[in-house]
Structure to design on (445 residues):
């Protein structure tokens, strides 16, 4: 037993842990879990815990359903919202087949594989996402709790207690927080996680989403990460701040001699060019729902044009300049993703696109600093243009299906599953007759 596993066993005894939940996600990013007793943990570390993979979306057919969950001891945490007596803990798991090989349908394995590829090239991939969400009175009706806006700290923002309890709970779970505040929409909020390596951050994002919902339930309300729950209010995004460091802790995106004056290295520029090139192909991963494209197609909310800048927030990629002369703060911000995404797959495809830009030594187009792209030239109806992201799930599927980079990054198993599952979702949506159509056409046609 290694030191991390030994620490888990000692903590289980000292903290009166009676149940250990083993966590993992399906391909679409839904959290899955089963609980084991402490007496089984040593066996879980050595041999894994068996479960039926045919019950998990995107895993295995019935005839190949045996799977093993191998807990990662570095992710062990006691759940603070459960009682301290007969406590409950959790560990994230890596999924393997009975022969001991990593399961190709495990999203955590996909990200680990990409992180290892980056490491072979000398890179550590750090990310810091900003996840937005709404509080509603219940899960059946999207009725906000307040009418506040950006950074409000008045009686309008009485959900601040929920944010406070959420932040404190996350910190008890070892997840540091940078900011929390009221967002632009009524009862819309944001909590920003402090940047760290991509695999740790993907685990943290899954924990974050669960904690937000658990605390909301304790307060008798509902929290939703739906990308566009209200037609008349802003959608919720998951802006992904990212950078590449070397193994000595140096930021490889920073170059104070950048002739553009942005303090970006050649590596950073190639990386940005890669994301701009491949963003339309990975959009199905970063924006995976029909509803995601209500946010992308709503001009003035989320960027859909293939562009970058430093100060222009209407571009797809921004180079934040809060501390322009601090090397460790140099990063880029991808502004299109939303919180419906599976973070393991999202971080994997973003990294793959950036690394491809470096490998291909792609040239970076000129920044767009002087135009509001939400209003300049429009975007609607241009979903198939190479200068615009897909503006419907159907377009995103088409771009994703033919992408060799996505097939290589995700593996044939996940790539083919997503094409099939998301095309079925798109067809189901197209067959649906909405209330908007009935209101517009029923009486006059």
């Amino acid at each position: 037993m290694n030191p991390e596993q030994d620490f888990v066993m000692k903590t289980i005894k000292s903290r009166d842990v009676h149940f250990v939940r083993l966590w993992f996600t399906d391909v679409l990013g839904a959290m899955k879990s089963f609980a084991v007793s402490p007496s089984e943990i040593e066996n879980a570390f050595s041999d894994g815990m068996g479960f039926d993979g045919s019950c998990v979306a995107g895993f295995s057919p019935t005839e190949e359903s045996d799977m093993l969950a191998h807990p990662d001891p570095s992710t062990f945490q006691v759940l603070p919202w459960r009682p301290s007596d007969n406590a409950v803990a959790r560990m994230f798991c890596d999924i393997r087949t009975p022969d001991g090989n990593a399961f190709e349908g495990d999203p955590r394995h996909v990200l680990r594989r990409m992180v290892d590829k980056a490491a072979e090239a000398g890179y550590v991939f750090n990310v810091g996402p900003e996840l937005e969400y709404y509080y509603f009175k219940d899960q059946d009706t999207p009725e906000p709790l307040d009418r506040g806006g950006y950074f409000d700290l008045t009686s309008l923002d009485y959900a601040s207690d929920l944010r406070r309890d959420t932040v404190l709970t996350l910190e008890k779970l070892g997840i540091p927080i940078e900011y929390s505040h009221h967002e632009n929409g009524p009862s819309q909020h944001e909590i920003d996680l402090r940047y760290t390596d991509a695999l740790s951050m993907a685990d943290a994002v899954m924990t974050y989403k669960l904690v937000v919902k658990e605390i909301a339930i304790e307060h008798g309300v509902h929290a939703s990460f739906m990308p566009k729950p209200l037609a008349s209010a802003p959608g919720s995004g998951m802006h992904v701040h990212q950078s590449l460091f070397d193994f000595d802790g140096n930021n490889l995106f920073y170059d104070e001699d950048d002739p553009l004056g942005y303090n970006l290295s050649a590596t950073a520029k190639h990386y940005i060019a890669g994301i701009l090139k491949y963003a339309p192909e990975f959009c199905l991963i970063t924006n995976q729902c029909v509803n995601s494209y209500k946010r992308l197609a709503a001009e003035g909310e989320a960027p859909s044009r293939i562009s970058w800048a430093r100060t222009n927030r209407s571009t797809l990629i921004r180079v934040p300049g809060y501390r322009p002369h601090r090397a460790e703060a140099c990063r880029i911000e991808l502004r299109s993703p939303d919180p419906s995404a599976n973070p393991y797959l999202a971080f994997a495809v973003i990294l793959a696109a950036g690394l491809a830009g470096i490998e291909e030594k792609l040239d970076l187009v000129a920044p767009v600093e002087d135009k509001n792209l939400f209003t300049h030239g429009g975007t609607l109806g241009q979903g198939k243009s190479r200068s615009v992201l897909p503006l419907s799930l159907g377009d995103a599927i088409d771009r994703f299906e033919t992408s060799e980079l996505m097939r290589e990054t995700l593996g044939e198993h996940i790539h083919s599953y997503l094409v099939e599952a998301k095309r079925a979702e798109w067809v189901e949506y197209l067959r649906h007759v909405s209330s908007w159509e009935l209101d517009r056409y029923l009486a006059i046609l």
User: Anything to note?
Assistant: Confidence is low (pLDDT under 50) at residues 377-385. The CA atoms of residues 184 and 208 lie 20 Å apart. Residues 404-431 form the longest helix (28 residues). The chain has eleven helices and 15 strands.
